[in-house]
Amino acid sequence: MRRKLQINRLREDPSxxxxxxxxxxxxxxxxxxxxxxxxxxxxxxxxxxxVRHRVVGLPDPLPMKRIAGTDLxxxxxxxxxxxxxxxxxxxxxxxxxxxxxxxxxxRLAHSPMGSSSVCAGEGYEVxxxxxxxxxxxxxxxxxxxxxxxxLRREQHFWVYRPARFNPVLSYPLMVVHDGGDYxxxxxxxxxxxxxxxxxxxxxxxxxxxxxHDRLREYPNYAPHARFIARExxxxxxxxxxxxxxxxxxxxxxxxxxxxxSLSTAVRYPGIFGSLLIQSASxxxxxxxxxxxxxxxxxxxxxxxxxxxxxxxxxVRRMYMSCGIYEPLITPNRSMxxxxxxxxxxxxxxxxxxxxxxxxxxxxxxxxLSWLYPGPQKYVYE
Length: 381
Prior knowledge:
Blueprint: H1 6-12, H2 18-28, E1 32-34, E2 37-43, E3 48-53, E4 62-63, E5 65-66, E6 72-78, E7 84-93, E8 96-100, E9 108-111, E10 114-120, E11 140-148, E12 153-161, E13 173-177, H3 179-185, H4 188-197, E14 205-209, H5 214-217, H6 222-239, E15 249-254, H7 256-267, E16 274-278, H8 298-309, E17 317-323, H9 329-341, E18 345-351, H10 357-362, H11 364-371
Parallel strand pairs: 13-14, 13-15, 15-16, 16-17, 17-18
Antiparallel strand pairs: 1-2, 2-6, 3-4, 3-7, 5-6, 7-8, 7-10, 9-10, 11-12, 12-14
């Protein structure tokens, strides 16, 4: 027998009033997770209240309804187990609209664009390896600088050396686009410390590289690719004991950073052995030019269209992930077969999440342990 939702029980309670509403909100907070349903709450005076989100398949904005005779607003949505959704609330009072994080929900996610409230479905938990573990030996993170002829400027970046770094050994190298954001918003140093310490992932050196002008440099920009392949990698190979072979090098990035990783590898085949791309902006057109992404996506579409017309295999292995709730799920799914038919081994995974840093953080154990398995089974080909 299907259980009645808590919000419907409240609606039908004969003693419904301010005291009962206060007790209800204090007990449940927001959102209320019941099986495959999430009920969002807001308390206050307004002409209209909405849930704002970027979940493909749900109306945006999602209108909330006022519980008759109270100042409590509610909206119930489907939320499959294991889901994770970021959202905000929006109120309209006359002609004034205001958007803000859910005051009844202390759970927040952060990004370069600010913070959002988090709705975690039944069964979702932040992975243990994404949280500080006192027993995990910490690696070392240092800030470095080098002069780039390709970019015509000084470029700063961070270098991660694993705990117990030994200069007589040789380490694989991973180059991470949006490096500062991966460190700040995806806890990547913590992730590396934990996964390396617990032998899920081989000890590696990681270069975290931030962009100067992301929308210009990341969609198939020749100077950026030249900097990564012809300047950064050789410089790091001189500085550090790195495996000087494609199998020991990986490019990583999310969204536009995924395009930067792929396009750099395509421009310089044979330099890198693997790619790790998350929610990559693999937007393309088969008919016409209306891709729907706006001018910023024009160079992306031009690159992906050209690649689809003549696909190549610039690396041997590629890990891809994408959230089911984000608009990029369709082009990412479509490109898996293109990459495989070009001759690359592709591991592709989806999850019930959106286009955000926590999603990309949560996929790292699966990605890194596949690309760089722990020492007990680590073999370079």
